[in-house]
Design goal:
Blueprint lengths: L4 E6 L4 H13 L4 E4 L7 H6 L7 E5 L6 E4 L1 H11 L10 H26 L3 H19 L16 H20 L8 H12 L1 H4 L6 H12 L2 H6 L1
Parallel strand pairs: 1-2
Antiparallel strand pairs: 1-3, 3-4
Length: about 230
């Protein structure tokens, strides 16, 4: 798509935004980034976001009206299909469908992590932490035996989905000393490979950890009380 300008509307901590940013960075695509405050959404954002959520990708093409895409998986697949660079989805339809299914599974992990971060009591925290650990262990059963990524040597959109979840887990471990990952070497190796990936590192602002700590403190939940 020559002469196309891409603008990613973002929020600093949003893991779904990170997926889109990682995909753009993996493809080597120039893009502009605009941050908004989700607690004070500007009117211009509400007018173009059908669900009132980030990410949004504004696609500007000469001679055409701007198009605004929403939902991270849609944005990531659009980028992969239209931009130069390595393909991040398998060419085989069955493999591609399986990857899409595991991307949905990764989305469910983010919901679990949010519930863990905002849990107000021990019972809720422990139940959600147990569920998260069990689900990550389930992913380990389908990982490539060779690695370092989900399907082997090549980075894929599945990796772009799971990287933000691993970043949240790593941040929680740093801030409050709680590591939710099961003690599985293959999962640890996958996490380490993803968190060291330049696109994953560059997908968040430099003050990500400080922002995450501020978010956890604002929840006044069981997680910080447990670590105190």
């Amino acid at each position: 798509m020559p002469d196309t300008t891409l603008t990613l509307v973002s929020a600093h901590l949003c893991p779904y935004v990170q997926r889109a940013a990682i995909t753009l960075l993996e493809k080597g695509v120039p893009f502009e980034r605009v941050y908004i405050d989700l607690k004070a959404k500007p009117d211009w954002f509400l007018k173009i976001s059908p669900l009132g959520r980030v990410p949004l990708l504004r696609v500007s093409r000469p001679g055409h009206p701007d198009v605004v895409l929403f939902e991270s998986s849609v944005i990531s697949e659009f980028i992969d299909e239209t931009q130069k660079g390595p393909k991040l989805h398998p060419s085989d339809p069955v493999e591609r469908a399986l990857h899409r299914a595991w991307m949905e599974f990764g989305s469910s992990l983010l919901a679990d992590l949010y519930a863990i971060q905002t849990a107000k009591d021990a019972e809720t925290f422990q139940a959600k932490a147990k569920l998260f650990t069990e689900k990550v262990a389930r992913v380990a059963e389908t990982l490539s035996a060779t690695g370092p990524f989900f399907a082997g040597e090549a980075f894929s959109l599945v990796d772009a989905v799971f990287a933000p979840a691993f970043r949240i887990v790593a941040a929680m471990a740093t801030i409050v000393g709680v590591d939710l990952l099961p003690p599985l070497p293959r999962i640890a190796a996958w996490r380490d490979a993803l968190l060291a990936r330049p696109s994953v590192v560059a997908a968040v602002p430099d003050d990500y950890l400080a922002r995450m700590e501020a978010f956890l403190r604002s929840q006044d939940g069981y997680l910080l009380a447990r670590a105190a």
